Amino acid sequence: MAMADNKKVFSDRQAAFLQHLATRMVPEARDLNAAQRRRLRMTIRLMLRRRSGMERLQVRLFLFVIRWLPALRYLRPFERMPESAQDRFLAFLEAAPLKVIRAGFWGLKTLVFMGYYGQADIAKEIHYTPSLHHGNEYLG
Questions:
Q1: Interacting residues of 97 by C-beta distance below 8 A, sequence separation 6+
Q2: How many CA atoms lie within 13 Å of 133's alpha carbon, on the beta-carbon side?
Q3: Which secondary structure element, helix H or strand E, spans residue 7, and what is its range?
Q4: DSSP 3-state assignment of 96?
Q5: Could you give the angle at the alpha carbon of 70 between the alpha carbons of 67 and 74, nearest 5°?
Q6: Which pTM does this prediction carry?
Q7: Contact, 89 vs 70, CB < 8 A?
């Protein structure tokens, strides 16, 4: 695993942007403390380290597109747009006519969900108790 830890997933700037996206995808993520924000980013990094270099590149490219494509209309990057415009843009990506865009969006959203809901304290707070031994068996 030591070799996998050296794989470049994304820069600190991209991680900060991803943190901002997380607050748009999971509004409760705004209330995360510093340790929870680090765990969210680390979970995503760990999941991406298991992927190929090409897949990591695709994630970085998709983050770039999400950040800068809206500048064509709003003359500013995604995170500096009004929140309502950010939400509309993400809704467009979520239901985009091109499958590759929808797939990229849902892949990114899945990573954000893992990073947020996968934290033990948050899972406990929402009473999420999956079986760790039997697939999707519910133990609550």
A1: none
A2: 1
A3: none
A4: coil
A5: 125
A6: 0.82
A7: yes
